[in-house]
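Task: encode each sequence below as structure tokens.

Item 1
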Amino acid sequence: MNCEQTRAIAAELALGIADGEQRAEALRHLAECPDCRRAVEELTTVADELLLLAPEREPPAGFESRVLARLQPEPEPAPRRARLWRRGLVPAGAAAAAALAAVAIALGATSDDRQLAQHYRATLAAAHGSSFDAARLFAPGRARAGVVYGYDGATSWVFVALYRPYRASDYTVELVTHDGRRIPLESLHLDPKTGSGGQAVPIDLDSVSAVRLIGAERGDVLEAALPHPR
């Protein structure tokens, strides 16, 4: 087996999935070729590190097949004999190399998610919280008017931030519960310059379905439906 043939199955050797005859020939070549040996050792190190860094969350269904399909090389014309030899080696080698790449991509895609989840859990733990939500405020006609933030914890609270066109009105704020009750937040006053303000709420935020801002004019109502489940 020469260098080109050995490099073609290097990924399979690194993953330990090369068949017996090919592996034996490749090992004989590796014993005499330091360059090929170094290449296989590097791939083996990558495979070992990826296994140690396996994601806590499984990639979505079909992720590997989609990555492999995108990484599959275009077929190249070759003499008939060379093509017959490559049929047994290149697809398997390419698939093995693509599998390593797929794992690397999966790790990259999930590592940020894990860091974000850890930060989220730490934020909740700081005040014994169970959830933190955000929802858009809409004016009549589904125009975007601002954002409502809600924290459900040892002390639950809501914070309202209005977009500039809606800051001039003087609103009263109320919570709408899942069972239809309306609870006014009489102490929540919005700063007219920033259009923002917040207040601790007297009920479990998990029981709140919406936050409503009611203006002085008839029909001047902004509403945000909180996304958390009952």
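Item 2
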Amino acid sequence: MKISKSLLTLAAACVLTTSLYSCKAKKAVVKPPPVATVPAKAPEPAPVEEKKEEPVAAPAPKPDFDFSNVQFEFNSSVLKTASYPILDNVALEMKKDPAAKFVINGHSSAEGTPEHNLSLSVDRANSVKSYLVNAGLPDSNFAIKGFGEKVPVAPNDTESGRQLNRRVEIKKN
């Protein structure tokens, strides 16, 4: 059997190719040394928040309306500047219960005639009412009473007592 030169060249090329690849040094696969592993901890569960029972809110008590520290100068129905913060607080409390009705009681000291003191006490009550209406409260929520000198809270024989008697008191009706 005669082998052709081209077939022989082809066979030689295959052998040569195969031997070249098979003779190549193989690189050793180096595995890294095993790392000591700590068994994975299961994630800790999130802390459970204890549900605190919220107290059942009782209805808010209606504000107690008993304001009696509104003072006036002698023989005057003009509010003292010191009464403004008091009346501002009164207005805030009254706005919490817009349907509430009030009586504004005016008083005076015993100086002057009973008729004049009665008229002055009504004027003082009206002065307070005007302040509260200007603060945004309905005019219809107020009734006015004047007592003159008849209901003192202190003796009228000293100036400090008379000053305390020149007042307006606001009561819930």
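Check on item 2: The helical segments are 5-23, 83-95, 114-134, 159-165. The chain has a mean pLDDT of 79.
End of task.
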